[in-house]
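Quick question, first post here. What does this chain look like in 3D?
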Amino acid sequence: MAFGGAKKFYDEAGLYEYAVGALARRMRSVAELKRLLRRRVEKDELGAALVELVIAKLKEQRYLNDAQYASTYSSLRRENDRYGRRRVVTELKSRGVHSEVIEKAVAGIYDGVNEEALARAYLRRKRLQKPADQKQAARVFRSLIRAGFGTRTIISILKKWDVDDEVLTALESEES
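> Answer (accepted):
Ran it through. Tokens below.
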């Protein structure tokens, strides 16, 4: 049993309005918006041309700009979520932003940032305390890895918390 009835396809004006509405709800990369728009047009050459036409119009009007998107996204992730560089790069790649644009944006945002201080701010935000045993040390280590921090920074933090060298070696080899 199908739900929703027949799928509605848009013409150029309708597709443009839909795209503007999607951009009003949240920032999107060019690739994300293309994916969204492709679902709203026929799956033929005319539909693909409509999507490209709307994307070009949005770029021309400066509603859509991957460099600006990557820069803003990186800044928000660093300031609000306290994520490390690696996590931001991975997320931007998954959103379809080109590698050169990502590198330039992330380098500009993370230039001069003390990664250890950012990692400590992340730990405070997540309310992760000094580990009492090996299991908690592993939890902190994995959490920081997921947040995009480098192994060297994580090991440095855990050493300052007096975690055994044996545990640190095991965690370091696990990550590799």
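The mean pLDDT is 92.
Residues 45-60 form the longest helix (16 residues).
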